[in-house]
C-alpha cells in the first residue's frame, strides 16, 4: 500500500499545481449562469461573489428588533450544546447537539445578553430548509432561490437554511480554551481533549452572509488523503434540569468523522495533515461564498451573525464516482497500516 | 495490489450503474450551450446530435466532382499505410503512417478506383486543423466552428480537421482478414498478428459526418482498468519504389499504446477486457457525434466517407487530475503483477 499512498499523495499535490487557487478569488458581480457553471461548478472551485445580494431587503432590515417583531413568536429548532460544537468529536463519541424548540425571541435574548446567563450555546442551524419551512415570513426579505445558480444547474435548491448564532457556535469551532475564556461556559462532559472538526456535504452551497462575518477554512476533496478519519459512537447532548450537560449515547453503528481541529491541528498525531493545503477566507455581510460539493470546511462566525444558505444537491456523475474511488483508496491504504489505529486517512 | 485492483474494478463498474448510458443517446436538435455543458460536457458523456448540420452547404455539395473542381489541385497531407492501420501496433512496433503530399484529385482517383490499383491505403486525416490550413476554400461549405459548442466552452476550436478515406482506412480498423479479402492489399511487413487498437484524445470532439457513415466503438475513461497497454518502439511506414512497404524504426523511447483489437478482442491474452463495456454507435451523414475527452475510441468508416471534426482542448481540471490518478493506479497495479508482462493494464 506504500505505492498507493505515494500515488494518491502525488495526485493531491498535482491538483494544487494544476487547477486550484491559493486563495478564494472574488467575483465582483453576479455571474452569467453558463460562465459560472464552466468556471466554478464544473471544476469544483470556490469563489466569493460580491454585489449579488445588494437587492435583498434583509441586508438593511434584519435587525434583532425587526426579527422579534416579524417572527419573534415563532417556535424554531435550535441546536443546544455546552460549548458550541455541533457535530464534533469528544473521546469515543461523535456528539450531536440537543435539538430544542424555542421562540426566536428567546434565542435573540440570549444572543443579546438579556436575561440570565445560560450554561449553553444556542445556534439556529437546522439544515432542513428551515427558512422556508419554519420562517416563511422572512422569505420575501431574501429570495427563494438564486436565479443564476438555478439557471446554471437547471433546478431549484433542495434547501434554504437560516443561520443565527453566537460567536462560540460553530459548525466546528473555536478552541475550547479561547471559548472558555471569553464566554465562561461550563462544560461538564467534555474536557480539553474535545476536538473540533471539519466536514463535507454533497451539496453545491451558496452561503450568503446577511450580517456579521463568517470565517471559513476550506480543503479541496483532492486533499482527502491528508485528512484523518476515525470511527465514533453517535451520541447527543442533553441539558439536565440543573443546567449541566450530559452526553447520551445513541444506538446505531459507529460513524466515520474527522477528529482533526483545523484551527490547531495536532501534527504529531496526524502528520499527514502537514501536506494539506487549507485555504482560509472571510465572508462579510453582503457577500456570498460558493462552497463546492465535497469540499471539507470548518466555519466560525462573528457574534450574532445571520446568514442564509442555498443547498443544491450535487450531480452524482463522474466527479462523484472518482471521489468515491479516492475515498476507498484512502481507507484501503490505512487499513494496511499499523493495527489498532482508528484513522482511515493515509 | 490485489486490493487496489479490486477497488478500481468496483469504481469502473459503479460508473456504469451511476451515470453512464448503455447506448449513445440522440439529441434531435442543436442544444442550448448551457444545457449541453451541464448534461454532456461536465459529466463527460457522449451523444449524437441530429439536425445540427442541416444548414451546411457541404451536405449536398461535397461530391467528388465538386471537390475536384474546387480543391482538386490542392496539395494535402495524406496518411499512407499498407493496410489502413494508422497508429497501430505491429509486433514490437507502434507504427505511424507515411505522410505524403498529394493532390486531392489523386486521392479521389484512388477512392473512386480510377487509375492503377494501389498497394497502399490512403487516408486524409492529418489532425492539425487541415481544413482551415490546407483546404480553406471548403470552410464556407461548413462552419469555422460550432457556435453553441464555442459558446458552451467560451472559446473557439483548437483544430478543424477534414477526413476522407477508403473503407479500409481506420483510426484503428477492420480485421486484416476481412480487409485482405475485400481490397486485396499487399502487406509485406505485417502479418495476421497485426492488431488494431483504440486510443483517446485530450479533446472535446464534435465529429460531423458529411457523407457516408462512421462506426464508433467507445469506452469511457472509467473503463481504463480493463484496457491493456503495452510499450512499443515508434516506427513509420515507408513505401518503397516497388510499391512494397517497410517499417522504419524511429529514434526515441517506447510509447505506451493499446494492443487490443476491440472488433475481435483476444480475451485469452487480455481477460480483464471481459469487464469493459464498449458502446457502439453509427454516425450517419448529417449527424454529429459528441465524443468526450479521454474516451477511448475506435473508428471505422464507409468507403469514401467524408467528415469534418472540431477539436476543443479539454479543461485540465479536477476530472483530468482524477483520470491521471486512475492511470497511475492502473500502471502501479500491473507493475506488481507477473514479471515480464508488458501490459500496464490491470
UniProtKB/TrEMBL annotation, chains A, B:
One Pfam family it belongs to: Cupin_8
InterPro entries linked: Cupin_8, JmjC_dom, RmlC-like_jellyroll
Highest taxon in the source lineage: Eukaryota
JmjC domain ranges (all copies): 124-327
Signal peptide: none
Name of the protein described by the UniProt record: JmjC domain-containing protein
Organism: Takifugu bimaculatus
